[in-house]
Predict the 3D structure of the following.
Amino acid sequence: MNYVLKTERDGDVAITEVQATLTLGCGLKESMKELAQTGVKCLILDFSNVAEIDSAGLGELIAGHVSVAQAGGSTILLNVSRRSKELFRLTRLNGLFPTYNGAASIVRGVIANRPHEVGSKTERDAEPRMLSEVYLG
C-alpha cells in the first residue's frame, strides 16, 4: 500500500492531508510525532481521502494524538467520512477529537469557543487573524 501524507505548515499550525487506508505502518503516528517535536501546537488531519480505518489505524491515530498532546498541542479531524465517524462513536473516541466538515466550520467552531472580547473591540469588529492565532489565542 502506498501511503501519502502531505503536510502544509504555518508556524505552529499544520494541516496534513492523509491519503491512505489507516492501518498498521501507515506512517501517521510517526508523522504526528515528528510534527509535535518540531513545535506544532494545532494539527489538523484532513481525512477527505481516507478510504478505511482498521483497529491498527486507530492505534496509529491515538498514539500520534498522545505525542501531540504531550507536546502541548491538539489534534483536529477534518472531513471524516460517515463510516469513520461511526467507528469513532462505537469505540468511544468521538469525544477525543474535535471533528469538522470543511475549513470554514473549523474557524466557526474555534471562534464560538473563545472569548467575545479581543482587546477593546468586540469579536465582530476585530481585525482578521490567521487560523493559528484564532485557535491558539
The chain has a mean pLDDT of 79. The domain at 4-102 is CATH 3.30.750.24 (Transcription Regulator spoIIAA). Residues 55-70 form the longest helix (16 residues).
